[in-house]
Amino acid sequence: MAGVRAGAQMPHLSKMERVVVSMQDPDQGVKMRSQRLLITVIPHMVAGSDLVEWLIQKYCISEEEALHLGTLLVQHGYLYPLRDPRCLVLRPDDTPYRFQTPYFWTSTLWPATELDYAIYLAKKNIRKQGALVGHEKEHYGQLHRKINHAWDLVVTQAREQLRAAKQRRKGDRLVMACQEQTYWLVNRPPPGVPSVLEQGPERSSCTAGQAQMTKNIDFYKREMELCRKALGRARVKSSVCLEAYLKFSSQRELHDPIMSGCLPGNPWVTDDDTYWTMNAPSVAVPTKLRVERWGFSFQELLEDPVGRAHFMAFLGTEFSAENLSFWEACEELRHGGQAQVRAMVDAVYQQFLAPGAARWVNIDSRTMERTLEGLHQPHRYVLDDAQLHIYMLMKKDSYPRFLKSAAYKDLLAEAVIPPEAKKRVFPFMRKLPHSSPSPALLPAATAGGPECGEGGA
Amino acid sequence: MFQTTSSETSFQEISTAQLLFNVCRNLHQVAERVEALGQFVMKTRRTLKGHGNKVLCMDWCKDKRRIVSSSQDGKVIVWDSFTTNKEHAVTMPCTWVMACAYAPSGCAIACGGLDNKCSVYPLTFDKNENMAAKKKSVAMHTNYLSACSFTNSDMQILTASGDGTCALWDVESGQLLQSFHGHGADVLCLDLAPSETGNTFVSGGCDKKAMVWDMRSGQCVQAFETHESDINSVRYYPSGDAFASGSDDATCRLYDLRADREVAIYSKESIIFGASSVDFSLSGRLLFAGYNDYTINVWDVLKGSRVSILFGHENRVSTLRVSPDGTAFCSGSWDHTLRVWA
């Protein structure tokens, strides 16, 4: 059962196995050769460099990536080196490697028990006449104490397996010992080597029992509902959607620091935070790119505090600033604390919706009626319809006018284009990156939560 | 009329499928005319060392330089990653802190994991105050917390859990505002939509499904099920019209919300380990994905090709986020370190 569960959580193991199997293909696989080790000849070996070359050719990847992938195969025990077998690394030279037998493949995920490990160590101990070293010696001692009651079984099994092995040819014996050693290096890695089997906290989905439980009537009812919704949903043509990505990405390319760099320079690269100072949330003179972005979408304009302030000023000249204020108040309600909901709804009603209100907003009668009705049972979404109406009004009407206005054109003209920072002549004279005050220290000037006051300022 | 032989049925099925395949074009075909990207060089610019165990999650502060990170040993650290100074540290009473988030104001952090809870810690520089003393326990699930995120303000938190549900909480009172049921297994990740009238988020889980939810009603609005294994990470495309997902099946996929289907797959035969974490560059042209084979692959979102592979981490990459202004991205790994790349 453990094998099934873990297997589902480790799809990369079966993929690794497919790689290893194709490596052993007689026609398309890695070149095999025999290698002389002391007095025995071991067949079916591959050289590290041949493995890397094969990976490069097969997957069209660089040498670095091939070496990395090959190393992972070795670390997961699918290949083992015959020279220095304790070290599961891939050397891109003539170091010989062999393919692990499927019996010991990591994906079998046998629960490598203490008993099995004890038998393995006992065999080693007997063979080396008590000369186990390092962590293996430590583990052997621990196991001896822990499963002392079964120790006779351990020793008997060990002796039996060694006796059976002696009946094989020396070459086979060597190979089997290496295979087993690799298995244990993966399942009981030496200290300092991270375990490739570790997966993090268990995900209960993989247990068959859980899966059975959830597929009940409710589950299928929900599935049916989802399908029904999907059938009725209005879809946009794929071609329209896909074109939108092309347009969006090309419009934003110059505004993407990773794609196009940023002026005067990327702080992470130059250690100079001027770029951040020049683009601070409430800077006096915004940069040209920033002002341009306000023209990309209404959302971009509103999300930028400087942009929003200028838009508010513009609305003031058109005597419709109460629209934006109303929208802001609704946002505060939607994202505010639960305890403040009632009071906020009241305040918004008094200021913007009540007949004769100081900053009355012009909403169509149907929406107004629905909203006023909903105010009897105030909740944080009660103003959503009205908010959306006003938002669309600003977006379709005021926003396009703003973009065409003299005010906006002036902002574009006055906007700053930072010069590219001069490359420092003496690269070793690195400026230490400036520290900046944590937002948690600043007084609650910007739109933030009530928690900000506790910043110990 | 109703009885067809099996071979006739399969012929009909194949024809229909072929027709659909030719009609439903994918992003890479449409993007053929787009210019290919040139040489791509990104290097580690900062290495943050200080965690004593696997780094599991990280999040950026809106100030574009501070980050919060959490690890297996229960430590949650706030860094100014530009100077690499540690500014705050908290030890949680549980191990495997798999989720952490920075509040929009920059004045608090949220985190949780095997304790099944999400707790909010106000950040204080007062040396006399113990951060743990002001801790607020907000969310309560019946299994591990896998992801958390503040909404537009410090006052609401969205959580995802191994108990198969997501939930929206009021931070001040700890009240459950809305719960989201529908996943058939552990929910592993979530992301809030950047939509202007925004009230949706997407979640991904062990049931191989990515589900889009209406925060108001708690209903699932759309669902996508094309991955072959657990979905570890979901992230919206900057326009909000699509989202990407990273999965244990070693692929990343792009799902379009308006077309209601998968429109791109990012995979390569040589990539066989699961993708643990994905994020877009600011323009949405690049998709950065951290993998369990210790690497980060950079994908051309439009063309579907892999632009670059970044080596450096010595164990699996568990978390990856692009900074708020898109100047860099940060990756956290089981090798105990975080790296900022630019």
Describe the structure in your own words.
- The complex is a heterodimer of chains A (457) and B (342).
- Helices cover 55% and strands 4% of the residues of chain A.
- Chain A has 457 residues and is mostly helical.
- A 4-stranded antiparallel beta sheet of chain A has the order 1-2-4-3.
- In chain A, α5 (114-127) crosses α6 and α18 packs across α21.
- Chain A starts with a helix and ends in a 43-residue tail after the last helix.
- The longest helix of chain B has 18 residues, at 6-23.
- Chain B has helices at residues 6-23, 27-30, and strands at residues 44-49, 55-60, 66-71, 75-80, 85-91, 99-102, 108-112, 117-122, 136-140, 145-150, 156-161, 165-170, 176-181, 187-192, 200-205, 210-214, 220-224, 231-236, 242-247, 252-256, 261-266, 275-280, 286-291, 296-300, 306-310, 317-322, 329-333, 337-341.
- Chain B is built from 2 helices and 28 strands.
- In chain B, β14 (187-192) and β15 form a beta hairpin.
- By secondary structure, chain B is mostly beta strands.
- Classes of the chains: A mainly alpha (457), B mainly beta (342).
- At the A-B interface, α2, α3, α4, α9 and α10 of A face β17 of B.
Low-confidence stretches of chain B: none
Radius of gyration of chain A: 35 Å
SSE arrangement of chain B, N to C: HHEEEEEEEEEEEEEEEEEEEEEEEEEEEE
The helical percent of chain B reads: under 10%
Overall pLDDT of chain B: 92
Question: What is the number of strand segments of chain B?
Answer: 28
Strand order in the largest sheet of chain A: 1-2-4-3
Protein name (chain B): Guanine nucleotide-binding protein subunit beta-5
Family (chain B): Belongs to the WD repeat G protein beta family.
Keywords (chain B): Repeat, Transducer, WD repeat
WD repeats (chain B): 48-80, 138-179, 180-223, 224-265, 277-309, 310-342
Compose a concise summary of this entry.
Chain B: This is Guanine nucleotide-binding protein subunit beta-5. The complex is a heterodimer of chains A (457) and B (342). Chain A has 457 residues and is mainly α.
